[in-house]
């Protein structure tokens, strides 16, 4: 519940507690793949919390959207990622993303707008105040996190470049550089990674461009230096390491929809009533709660139905998934 303030693998439990400044004491159960075949490990007591190693972001203020749910450990957020540009295993991004150079970083604004051009990412962010927003993130693979993102409203950024009346959609593109992103040397997807939103989705106040988490600059494996976060959609919609934002008249193609259209729709709204063809979406497991913790029911629109359901009035969400 929101409070306003003025390929598929099971998740592995964390062995490290969250940052002391953000999280209450929690229990973690350690297990390995061997546990799945009967050689279970004993439960471990949580070690002393540690701070993150990223650059602290200045001038961050509390944002208007927060969940009161316990936040996921920093170490889990930064070590368990889908970022195929750096590898297919959930741990690969943390291992390999150090090769990504995030400065200087140009972000191109293109398409149906009055002020197209390529702008420095820091200048784009500098034009808006940085807000911390605590959002749920739900992956299509039935795991979830609660992340204290730091970012700026996407709609506010887009308005700065003056979209025209022809702008019906917003397309996003990730950096394509196999030299820095070793996963792009494989034909896992048709690179570069691309995603898109309808213009009203992009302008919704829940949609943000994130540049940090836990008060620090985004780690490379989490999409540095700038990524999209759309909390009512499955995680693959929140594209990472963005180099281009284009305002389009036609619905843009998206990477996973092109790869497997029967499994990944354009909208990608979290909907427990629409199963993935290979698994159910009715329940999820929160990262860090333990491999044997009971799963929780998946919430429609990831729990943000009150805010966003009106965007889809009259649509058949089983077909327009």
Protein model, in words:
There is one protein chain. The protein is of the alpha+beta class. It has one domain (2-6, 55-312): Alpha-Beta Complex (Sulfite Oxidase, Chain A, domain 2). Helices cover 12% and strands 23% of the residues. It has seven helices and 14 strands. β9 and β10 form a beta hairpin. The longest helix has 7 residues, at 154-160. Residues 1-52 have low confidence and may be disordered.
Topology:
Elements: E1 2-4, E2 61-67, H1 74-79, H2 92-96, E3 106-111, E4 117-120, H3 121-126, E5 131-138, E6 143-153, H4 154-160, E7 169-174, E8 194-198, H5 199-203, E9 208-213, E10 216-217, E11 227-229, E12 242-248, H6 255-259, E13 283-286, E14 296-297, H7 305-308
Parallel strand pairs: 2-5, 3-12, 6-13
Antiparallel strand pairs: 1-2, 3-4, 5-6, 6-9, 7-8, 7-12, 9-10, 9-11, 13-14
Q: Level of helix content?
A: 10-25%
**Largest sheet properties:** 9 strands, mixed
Q: What is the CATH architecture assignment?
A: Alpha-Beta Complex
Structural class by secondary-structure content? alpha+beta
Total domains: 1
Under CATH, the topology can be stated as: Sulfite Oxidase, Chain A, domain 2
Radius of gyration: 19 Å
**Beta fraction of the residues?**
15-25%
- Unreliable residue stretches: 1-52
Number of helices: 7
| Elements, N to C (H/E) | EEHHEEHEEHEEHEEEEHEEH
C-alpha end-to-end distance? 23 Å
What sort of overall outline do the alpha carbons produce when their principal axes are compared?
globular
Mean pLDDT: 86
CATH class: Alpha Beta
Total beta-strand segments? 14
CATH superfamily: Oxidoreductase, molybdopterin-binding domain
